[in-house]
Amino acid sequence: MSRKFGFSFSWKRAVGLSGMRTSFARRTGVPTTEGGLQRKIGALILGLLFGKK
Whole-angstrom distance between the N-terminal and C-terminal Cα of the chain? Predict the structure, then answer.
């Protein structure tokens, strides 16, 4: 049985990888998550097909 006691550890956060990805995404406008990238590409395709409002 595994208990977490209300906290968790992330090595990516400890190393600073999460912060770097976030700052990169904010500066460039390119999402670094798979879901974010899919949303951006989907919006682009729909914009091309139906025109932007």
Answer: 53
- C-alpha–C-alpha distance, residues 7 and 9, integer Å: 7
Closest CA to 45 of 37, 29, 28: 37
- Asked if 10 and 18 touch (Cβ cutoff 8 Å), the reply is yes
CB 36 within 8 A of CB 25: yes
pTM: 0.60
- In tens, the pLDDT along 16-36 reads 999 999 999 999 999 999 999
Please classify residue 25 by burial: count the beta carbons closer than 10 Å to its beta carbon, then call 0-12 exposed, 13-18 middle and 19+ buried: middle
